[in-house]
Design a protein that fits this description.
By secondary structure, the chain is α/β, with parallel strands linked by helices. Helices cover 40% and strands 13% of the residues. The protein has eleven helices and twelve strands. The strands form three sheets. An eight-stranded parallel β-sheet has the order 11-10-9-8-5-4-3-12, covered by helices on one side. Strands 1-2 form a two-stranded antiparallel sheet. Strands 6-7 form a two-stranded antiparallel sheet. The two termini are 36 Å apart.
């Protein structure tokens, strides 16, 4: 188990992403995925109030509703049996991070999840139209009122993360305990700024796109997107550069030594990085869960981490 920042949330070091629930995974499949994750020791579920508003006929909140129904059906309690994290700012009815929006969105999420308290509540995206002081105070009030246990930020710049913490300290309200950035073996830019900020402030990293939209599963070894089965697959093949394919080969070699998949090895590399608590990865089929669990249990050697560091080396000059 791994502790999230300076909170008392101890979680399995791999978060199950809820973005697919109600989208590419229907209710029954979602239940099966959640059951397998729980049976394998997983207890950290990450979703958002906006999942999956992008689907025709959906309004947002579909993922939270399925997770809530699963918790009720299995008799599980958030905060005790599982840790449930969700996000605010992108739901069609609750856009942005004004105080009134944050409060209304949190109450709506609580209703869909069927819980009394959200374990970890993320500010999904920064809101330039709302003073940060207002947002920080609103999140603090949720904690004070017992609607939320801990707060966190997602997709924030290092400067804005530091500013959020400064304001929280000035106001005497809850400080964030975690950051959710885009981070994986083919997207390492945050090591230049977000990682140092997290280290400085004692924040845990919970990276999303941990498998680079599926590229780091090893399924996409061609740059030809013709006939790609989905927009996600078309996006994944863009990573199939000479360096990207070399990363896949290295992952395959190291994974073979541990008897785990390329995907599990990529997740294990992320877990080995400074301040990383639990990468987020989703599964639209029950059969995919085992690889995710392996990623949370496999420990790479220092030499293996170094080999992956070297093959995926990134510098600002490359961008």
């Amino acid at each position: 188990m791994t502790r999230i920042g300076n909170s008392d949330l101890d979680v399995f070091p791999l978060a199950l992403g809820g973005n697919v629930f109600g989208w590419t995974a229907d209710r029954d499949t979602s239940f099966a995925v959640l059951d397998s994750f729980r049976a394998g020791g997983g207890d950290f579920i990450d979703t958002a109030d906006s999942y999956s508003a992008w689907v025709d006929g959906h309004t947002g909140g579909e993922s939270e509703t399925i997770i809530g129904e699963w918790l009720a059906a299995r008799g599980l309690r958030a905060g005790e049996d599982v840790t449930v994290a969700t996000k605010v700012s992108q739901h069609p009815q609750f856009k942005g991070l004004s105080a009134s929006t944050v409060r209304a969105a949190a109450e709506a999420s609580l209703g869909r999840l069927g819980v009394e308290t959200i374990d970890l509540y993320w500010a999904h995206f920064d809101d330039a139209d709302t003073p940060l002081e207002e947002t920080v105070a609103a999140f603090g009030a949720l904690v004070e009122d017992g609607l939320v246990r801990y707060t966190a930020v997602s997709n924030y710049s290092a400067d804005r993360i530091r500013e959020w913490v400064r304001i929280a300290r000035e106001l005497g309200v809850a400080e964030p305990v975690a950051v959710q950035p885009h981070y994986n073996l083919v997207h390492r830019e945050i090591e230049a700024d977000i990682v140092p900020a997290a280290q400085e402030l004692g924040l845990g990293l919970v990276p999303y796109f941990a498998l680079a939209k599926g590229f780091l599963t090893g399924k996409y070894r061609t740059t030809d997107a013709t006939g790609a089965s989905s927009p996600r697959a078309a996006a994944a093949v863009t990573y199939a550069t000479p360096q990207g394919l070399q990363i896949i080969d290295t992952l395959e070699r190291i994974g073979r030594a541990h008897d785990v998949s390329i995907a599990a090895t990529a997740l294990a590399w992320l877990r080995a990085k400074p301040t990383v608590v639990a990468p987020i990865a989703s599964a639209s089929k029950e059969a995919q869960v085992a690889d995710l669990l392996d990623g949370g249990k496999t420990d790479l050697t220092a030499d293996e981490v170094a080999a992956l560091d070297a093959v995926s080396e990134w510098t600002p000059a490359d961008q």
